[in-house]
């Protein structure tokens, strides 16, 4: 038979557990709803270089989400090609677009290339080329030079 003392101890433990659960529920409810940004999207989570992402808001400031990884945008400091987004290369410590790469300003392109009006990195007038498509818009590759 269960003694009265065992019943009181068991009852005390149940009461204490109930109080702990109530306190946890109160603390959780006092935090309010989970933070969301526009359209219910979670705010930035400060993911670092090479960490997985589904949009740039998840990456730490200065990084963008490219092919499900946080990477460095154009003209950012870099050490290796893999750090750079949008198929850019690490050239002299900066992420740069190579020939036919996307650009918005000349600084986005590798040294010696220009950003043409179609926002592609191309070879400038007077520089060495092998085909017309390499030259900036409106120029042809004649005798091995864009002109």
Explain how this protein is built:
It is a single chain. It is rod-shaped, with a radius of gyration of 30 Å. The mean pLDDT is 84. With 147 residues, it is α+β, with helices and mostly antiparallel strands. The chain has a two-stranded antiparallel ribbon. A two-stranded antiparallel sheet has the order 3-4. The longest helix has 27 residues. It contains 1 helix and 8 strands, in the order αββββββββ.
Which keywords apply here?
18% helix; alpha+beta; two-stranded antiparallel sheet; 147 residues; single chain; rod-shaped; 1 helix
As a whole number of angstroms, the C-alpha radius of gyration is 30 Å
Outline = rod-shaped
* Low-confidence sequence ranges: none
Averaging pLDDT over every residue, what do you get?
84
End-to-end CA span = 104 Å
Instruction: Look at the helices and sheets and give the structural class.
Output: alpha+beta
Question: Strand order across the biggest sheet?
Answer: 1-2
User: How much helix is in the residues?
Assistant: 10-25%
Q: Quickly count the helices.
A: 1
What is the helix/strand order? HEEEEEEEE
**Major sheet size, sense and barrel closure:** 2 strands, antiparallel
Strand content: 5-15%
Question: Based on DSSP secondary structure assignment, what is the total number of beta strands?
Answer: 8
Concise synopsis of the structure shown:
The chain is built from one helix and eight strands; from the N terminus they run H-E-E-E-E-E-E-E-E. The protein is an alpha+beta fold and 147 residues long.
């Amino acid at each position: 038979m269960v003694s009265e003392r065992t019943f009181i101890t068991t009852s005390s433990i149940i009461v204490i557990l109930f109080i702990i659960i109530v306190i946890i529920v109160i603390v959780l409810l006092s935090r309010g709803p989970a933070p969301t940004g526009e359209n219910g999207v979670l705010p930035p989570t400060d993911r670092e270089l090479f960490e997985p992402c589904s949009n740039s808001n998840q990456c730490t400031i200065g990084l963008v989400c490219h092919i499900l990884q946080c990477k460095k945008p154009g003209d950012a400091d870099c050490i290796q090609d893999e750090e750079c987004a949008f198929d850019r290369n690490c050239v002299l410590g900066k992420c740069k677009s190579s020939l036919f790469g996307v650009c918005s300003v000349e600084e986005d392109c590798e040294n010696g290339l220009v950003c043409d009006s179609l926002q592609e990195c191309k070879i400038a007038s007077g520089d060495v080329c092998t085909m017309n498509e390499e030259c900036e818009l409106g120029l042809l590759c004649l005798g091995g030079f864009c002109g």
